[in-house]
Fold these 3 entries.
Entry 1:
Amino acid sequence: MIEIKNIRKSFGDVVVIDSVSAMLEPGKANLIIGTSGSGKTVLMKCLVGLFEPDSGEIYYDGKDFTMMDEEERKELRQQIGMLFQGSALFDSMTVEQNVMFPLDMFTQWTFTQKLKRVNEVLDRVNLQDANHKFPAEISGGMKKRVGIARAIVLNPKYLFCDEPNSGLDPQTALVIDKLIYQITKEFNTTTVVNTHDMNSVMEIGDHIIYMYQGKKEWEGNNKEIIFSKSKLLNDFIFASEFLQDAKDMRMLELKGKISNERNMDDLLK
Amino acid sequence: MLFFTHFGRYLLMIKGMFTKPENMKMYWKELMHQCAEIGIGSLGIVVIISVFIGAVSTVQTAYQLVSPVLPKSIIAQIVRDTVILEFAPTLTCIVLAGVVGSKIASELGNMRVSEQIDALEIMGINTKAYLVMPKILGALIVIPMLVILAAVLGVWGGRMAGTLAHILSHAEFDKGLLTNFVPYNVSFSLVKAYTFAFIISSIPAYYGYFVKGGALEIGRASTSAVVSSCIMILFADYVLAAILLP
């Protein structure tokens, strides 16, 4: 579990994160959503220690990350896997070498053991026959899957995904979302996903935090989001007329189901 | 003021390299990789430059020495000392600042911009130790070797040019080479080589490691790294000469 308490981060005079608190639970896909510049990437970078917050605390299973020394952080980071927006694969290494890298660095396993584990995780992300390809030779979706495989190869307790769907077509994005979700449930990881992809929100949003101008504007799940009264959140989620209409239809449908009084056809009459 | 900011951050980067390696085998592998990259990658240019510099030194020294009183073998002495003291370490390292320096800066810059350095940090790896240290150590191992090679080839180029241009025979050149040879000059040349190797590797590593932005900034960082390295080499060259030459 990750607990965030009053995190604040500014760059010069610009406050990017303003007193954000949240509880990120294991076995759940915790989504941080918001417009570009709302502070979600900075929040994630604070969580993993790439940025130091100005104030506030971050607890990983009760231990304050902000107070840890470099050695303690190193130890904790071996339990963290992260998928970057651009996948951040090492250009000079093949897919196999990329995934094997954390094992090379942090285990004393033999090459055969490492190869077995690499093939296991590559199978898990549905990526066979790409072991000897370089990142430049594979598609964006495949790169994301390699990124996920590298992130989970050491069985992390915490999985961070920064914009996992950026630059992907809707179908591939859905595959990546489902993969992240399955891994979260299967390994009971505390998964934190930064996204502004509405499909992701609806598909895997067990716990959603909506950020607006550095502040937490709304918190809930994908069932509650549709009933949110927050105008800012509604404007963000249902930005287009099409989505607004879809939301109205869905609400009517849900109300129908909840009240069990009328069916969809009646409501539309 | 900006200079001190950069200098302070540079010193902190150097200090940050000295931590216990996460896995010695991986660090060793990276060090060997860097030795090969820097050494073999620069071998061709070093060979070409050294031979021609030596050859030109012989021809131009002969052109300037018009006195019939002076023996021709003195040309070899001048070429030998010039090549060992100045051309082999300084000129080779200025060229290497361009070849190796820009490569180091752009490689690290690209890793920074594409978040590969962040990915390593998240894994719990000290990126300064894993990425910067092997480059500096690799340069410290390989560049003095390249300088020695440059000195040998420079003298050989001068010897060949002397014969080909009918300036002096091999026997006269060899006689000159062995006359008044000061072994200290070789030590001085190696001191320069180690100093310049550190400059060539650490300054571009600094520029690359802390780059911010995109492709344009990587290019700028690479150019700044080469310019700064060249200036620092020339400055260090003067300081070392002033301090170490009696």
Note: The longest helix of chain B spans residues 24-64.
Entry 2:
Amino acid sequence: MTLHLVLLVAAALFAVGLYGALSQQVVVMVMMGIELMINGVLLAGGALWWFLSPTPDGQTVLLVVLAAMTVEMAMGFAVATVVHRSRKSDMTDSATDLHG
Amino acid sequence: MITAILFWVLTALAVAGGIAVFVVNSMARATYALAVSFVAVGAMIVMLHLDYIGVITILMMLMEMAVMAVFMVMFMGMNPALMPMDMTHNKRRSVILAVLVFVVLAAAIVFIPWPNRTGSPADDLTKSLGDAIMGSKMLVMLTISPVLFATIIAALVLANPKGRYDRYGDALDRRDVDGHPDPDDPIPGGLG
Amino acid sequence: MSDGAFVLVVLVPVVVAVLSAVTASANGVLDARTNGAQLRTGFAVPFQETARLLRQQRRTLPGADSLLWRISSAGIGIAAVLKVLVIPLGGFTFADLPVGVVWFNAMDVLLWALWWLLGWGANSSWSLIGGYRFLSQALAYEIPLMFALTAPAIGAGSLRLLTVQTAQTHVWFVVWMPVAFLVFAASVVAFASWGPFQTALGADITGGVLLELSGIDRLLVTGGRYAVLVAGAGFSVPLFFGGGAGPILPAGVWVVLKTCLVLAGLLTVRRLFPTVRPDRLAEIAWVIVVPLTLLQLAVVAVIVGVNGGAL
């Protein structure tokens, strides 16, 4: 278990998540992709903390990442609910109002 | 030795779980594949001596996935296991982009000359995290809490089709002769 | 963990299973007394049921998600054992986690997933309704529980169970954290979907989550419910009842003894409450119980602040 290995795993998780976020049509599935990306960020943060600078207060950054994840989930579900209610659909392709 | 084996098993679980999310054609399986991936990452974070953050990740993500499954079933409105269909777009370009991102990240990871380790971990890392939150890094948490609070309110405003006033009308304290709210509360609960 | 501990770890599931059987028997006896049947028949109920289910053939509805279903039926007992692993027996503990209290919380959240999956996997509407009922009930009890769990942690100034236990050398936490204990005890009953919180398995939905379960799977789930009760009661010992502290007998025995007493309490009190509907529970739990728990936390924090530590 070295810094390189853990970071590579984190990069793999990030890439898989990116694929999901880009390719999925269903809002909830897109959110799963984003979650997976944040998952990779979290792991990378933990690895960088332990292998580079295990100072006491560095852990706080990871709490911020977790909080960001929570906000993403809550707002994602809220928006998904609104889209679903107003258009009876949960596809990203039907919500392109902001498309220029 | 045990650490190495554990690390590789967890790696396999995390990555395979992540891939499975977009491969399996059952909503429940996709959601819980993601949960497996998160639990594996949480365990890895515990292996990196971040006990609190690791266990909290496992806790939060299991909870989140349990709720996510409900939303999945609610919004999909059909069972892809019964009606196979492809709910994706730009699949090829997405794969190319994802692979590209991984290659760039991997190259960066391998070629960046990482600095040497500085500082030393505290004896009790959980306690030191608590001290940091309540001490030098208190401002961070003070910023996060209003953000989370605002999120709760914003999410409720967006998602709730009926607010307080739709529930009871203008007169929130209007009562019927039997003491019950009038008109009767359309959203029943233990208190009214 | 030393070599001896590795051998002892194998015993943990056995002890949990035995205690679960005892609890189930005691419950059977109390049921028999209520129904006016012979106490002996009540005592034998869990053993007869075990023998019956072991011989019963599994049946599965077409379209059932067997993988998730089987995982979740086996998982409930496993979650209970994982909880028990961190309970200290005096100065000894199998897994001395620095965040034992959070571990317990993580394992009870695992039960959210397991109960819902049990409902989902069967491919039966009644089961799925049961799974949803459990989730909505879980949303109601989890918020007060999370606050309640922090009370002993604040009292001891640590999330490590050994420290929480030793902080109670003078006064048990249950004395000055009664609200936290009550919320904890109610949540333990709710984890097991038992007593007043059994709507997920309610008769009105023909057994809900249990409906389609048969054979060994049903045995694992019904046994797992009692194992979850045992684990929860066992966990209350280091959190609220001073852990293994007690005269003459060794600490490990005291832990088991206190666990049994808490279980006896749960078995008795269970009969005094009607079944609570999850939708009603949410409002009660969030509007009444959460503020009460916060008040409890404030009291604990002030006491700890003034006293400079636990009482």
Note: The first helix of chain C runs from residue 3 to 35.
Entry 3:
Amino acid sequence: MNSAGPSSSSSRPWGLLLVLLGLGTLLTLASDPLQTASGTQNAFLRVDNLVANVATPMSWMAIMALGATLVILTGGIDISVGSIFGLSALATAAVLQRFAVDASAWLVLPTALAVALGVGTACGLVNGLLVAGLRIHPFIVTLGTLSIFRGIGLVAVRDKTLPSLGEQLPTAFTEGFVGARWNVGDTFLQPVPMIVMLVCTVIVGVYLARRVGGRQLYALGGNEEAARYAGLPTTRLRVRVYALAGLLAGVAGLLSCGFYQSANTATGEGYELAVIAAAVVGGASLQGGRGTALGALLGALVIKLIENGIDILREIDLGLFVLPISKEYSKILIGLAILAAVAVDRLGEVWRRARAAG
Amino acid sequence: MGSLARGSLSVAAVDARGIVKRFAGQVALRGVDLRVAIGSCHGLLGENGAGKSTLGRVIAGVHKPDAGELAVMGKPARWTSPRDALRAGVAMVHQELAFCPELSVAENLHLGRWPTRGGFVQRRAMESAAREALVPVGLDIDPARAVGSLSTAQEQLLQIAQALASGARLVVFDEPTSSLDDAECQRLLALVQRLVREGLTVIWVSHRLPEVLAICDRMTVLRDGEMAGELEGSNATEERLVEMLVGEHRELRAAKAETAPPPRDLAAPAEQAPAFLRVEGLQGERGLGPIDLEVRAGEIVGLEGLLGSGRSRLLATLFGLLPRHAGRVFVGDTELPPNNVRAALNAGVALVPEDRKRQGLVLGLDAARNVALGQEARWQRGALLDLAAEQHDTHAALAELDVRGLRPGAAVAALSGGNQQKVVLARWLSQSPRVLLVDEPTRGVDVGAKAAIHARLHALAASGTAILLVSSDRPELRALSSRVIPMARNVT
């Protein structure tokens, strides 16, 4: 990481943008030129690298980070997103493999959407009802459902991978939709996951800023008792954020299934950590009451850029000495990014407290 | 009085010169001098935001001054933590209580220095030492009891006992009576007077003039972070203090006129007015009730009683926040279902809660969003909220209560207590409630804000709202109410 970020969290989006700019500049300068058919290009700053290796693989993570931000905003946590993601991808593959390979898009796409979003929302609803209804701590609830949702996939799909041997998902869903290619010069892009990610960010952003239910989440997370005294439907809001987090994990599962044309019982294992990390790096406060959709997107981008940078670079020349970089470093660097983000958050909190005390 | 006779002339308990303290650009203290004689009780007064608590905290080592010299008992004090101050014999009794609720009285008293033998805590030794430490403050409780089970007043006595046991010779009290009822308050004042007679030096930070006049030998008044004046206890009067507190530029006289009791003709038509709020045989949590009462349109009914008599519980039960076990509640002709805040709101009931920081405000959000809280749907145009209209309306509601010049986006945590209370009030008043339940509307609020809040409540009643008021401030209750109902042990 090049920078610890901004000093105040009210300027958090700007600070994150600065971090991203610095990270991008560093990667551009440090990466080797690459010979391609159309001449010499920077290995990092290339449209197809940025889309294929950054934007596309970050799509599922960013979409789930939007859901995680909603939950964290209310002071909750959802560590079952990886399992919901995996289960909805599996369910989508299981249903779609029954269709003919050349089945009509009008038949295939609505089915895929209904299955993936339905499974995701149902899982999220279970989380929400357990958290709000039984007043169990969300960490415990989702720790339990993390295991259960994963287990359902293991029991239902004995083959481990779908589509089963000899089957294939309808092309109207895979190459025709999620994996659709746009030819750009001598290469091609697959922009659909990225576009869906951006659309989801805008929708969640508008929901948080301009819809009653979204804005009330800040109050619920900031001070639940005051929210109750003000007459907010706190239980309903709480159930809703977990359902929405599940819905978004379903969207992510749909994209992953279509893009990779398959799903596995291990799909999404361990994703919850990257997702929560993206939300936190993006400014969501685990104490509740703070977080934005744009932050979730940028947080996911920071994490993906670090991973991509490590893929591209072999060493960073720091002038005095040459820092060797290999894939093994990515975990450490991402960890440092999370800690830096939280430290900045903490400093902002101390600063606000001191201000309030005056 | 007689501090000169007892205290040494050369050495002061506190000698502060030119103390400056800033918080993130806001100046809380702009070069304050303070001299406190040994063995005296020194009052520190000021409106909210005047800097009195900050000065108290600087002396107790909670805050580090940005500039200025501080000497305690003749020695320069450059403390970086309350621990340093405690080592030099200075302790603080906090407004918000600072114990571990799950631990026992004895464990809390000796926190950080539990007697051990071979790594094991000597519980019995600790408890007998605690029993001894409780004697000077007259607190007769089992030291094995969990602190969480004590009342606020008992916890406060425990803080004093802790200060004395750790050898404090100077104790700073920060708004110690703000959450005590009358009787507890009197006991605390008597205790402090006794301790001062026995040689303790006390700095008493408060905005309650009568108690300061009753116990302080000398008083310093702060205004806007500066010294506004100092008075000897013998020639201090409430009027002179108020003059110093608010300065000459405030419309004090106007404020006073507005706090006067309502004219008779205002209370009179209430006799014939319809009962807006009718409660029949209400029973609630922890033995509340049965309660019958009526509040008519345009009437302010005061509920008078001690802490714990069930007043706040009654209001919360009426509003649907606490479960109602039996009885019926009518607003006009509509009967309210139990435990349903939404239904109460829809029927035109509003509750201004007792504890603005815990129940009233989301401290991290700005004033406008706190005013809008719970009624955001009012600004929905089509699918989205009209944020400009929301800003406009909420700021208008705040301006009506004389809260102006707020920076959009600035958290309400940074506002003074008076302005915070006005933000809570603005939320409920902007909904033009038919029935307003008000719990401690002016607790910890300065004189000017208090007058403004009283004026608004009168105006609201005059426009036909039925108001049910709870206040521990007896003069306030008497002045505001057209009718007072005594409440004791959960019943009226």
Note: Chain B has 19 helices and 23 strands.
